Every structure is written in C-alpha cells, then in structure tokens.
C-alpha cells in the first residue's frame, strides 16, 4: 500500500506536545546533551517551553562541557544558541588574567618584568628570551613561547620544552 503525504514546508510545521514532552523527558533523565542539541536544531521553531527552563538546560550542558575542558565545543554551542542570555556569555568575562611564573602574583601593569619579584614575565620555553609579540601556550601545562619556536619544537617532540613532562597540544 502506498501512502502519499502532502509536502509540508517547515514554516507550516506545528510542534506538538510530543516534542515538548520529549525535551522535558531527556532533561529529567539528565541527558542535557540531547535536550540542548535538539533545541539548537529546532532553532526558532522550538516548542513553547519558557526561556528560563531552556537557559537552565543550556547552562547545565555548558557546565558539563567545562568539567571536561571542552572549551571549543562550549564556545560553538554558545554561538549556536537562540537564547539571548546564553549568546551574551561570549561577550562577558573575556579577559585573561596573567600571573607571574615565579611568585604567582596577578600582573596588572604592562611590561616585561613582574613588579613584585622582577622576573621576566613571558619568556619563551625554547629560547628563554622574553616574548614581546604573540605568546602561545599549552592550556594543559601553561608553558609556551614564540610561535615559530614552539612550532619548530613540536616537529621534534610532543613533550613540553620545559621538561615538565606534559604532552603539549597547541590548537
């Protein structure tokens, strides 16, 4: 038996209680990944679930991603969000606080030396000279240096040039 279905444009598609119940079910089961992924796919056509609840689901999933240090995935998810409060997260707290490698003091002034202990702030892990331009670092061990020196080092070895033993990844 052949069933013929009328073609329905997406704009005509009406979400039923089924989609809403499915989203709530996944969220209640702790599967915020599926819940949030479905919300992203549904976009502006998502069911009439209050934005506060959707915010909670997004934040729960973003916290999960943060625990696994999946920063790039988290950033992509924030950019894909149709919720104003979530998409604004990329506009808040975009400052990186730099600390001295020797005394761990937060560096508040511009310069190449720590104002407390007078040590060089950004020295290259390969050549040991101050980095006065772009500084790249491993998010795992926080060591880094000149871009070209780190790139050259990584062609020879994957271990950190400082000898800390960390397998560095610069992406």
TrEMBL record:
Keyword Iron assigned: no
Occurrences of domain WDR59/RTC1-like RING zinc finger (ranges): 122-169
Pfam families (alphabetical): zf-RING_16 (PF17120)
Family matches, as InterPro entries: WDR24 (IPR037590), WDR59_RTC1-like_RING_Znf (IPR049566)
Single Gene Ontology BP annotation: positive regulation of TORC1 signaling
Source species, domain of life: Eukaryota
Keyword annotations: Repeat, WD repeat
GO cellular component, one term: vacuolar membrane
Record bears the keyword Repeat: yes
UniProt name for this protein: WD repeat-containing protein 24
Species: Mytilus galloprovincialis (Mediterranean mussel)
């Amino acid at each position: 038996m052949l069933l013929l279905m009328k073609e329905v444009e997406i704009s005509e598609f009406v979400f039923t209680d089924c989609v809403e119940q499915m989203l709530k079910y996944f969220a209640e089961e702790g599967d915020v990944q599926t819940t949030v992924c479905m919300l992203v796919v549904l976009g502006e056509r998502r069911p009439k679930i209050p934005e506060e609840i959707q915010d909670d689901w997004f934040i729960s999933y973003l916290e999960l991603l943060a625990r696994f240090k999946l920063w790039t995935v988290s950033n992509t998810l924030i950019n894909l969000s149709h919720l104003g409060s979530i998409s604004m997260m990329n506009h808040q707290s975009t400052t990186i606080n730099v600390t001295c490698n020797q005394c761990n003091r937060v560096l508040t002034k511009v310069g190449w030396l720590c104002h407390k202990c007078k040590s060089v702030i950004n020295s290259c892990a390969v050549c040991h000279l101050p980095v006065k331009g772009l500084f790249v670092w491993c998010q795992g061990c926080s060591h880094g240096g000149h871009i070209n020196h780190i790139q050259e080092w990584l062609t020879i070895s994957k271990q950190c040039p400082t000898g800390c033993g960390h397998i560095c990844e610069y992406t």
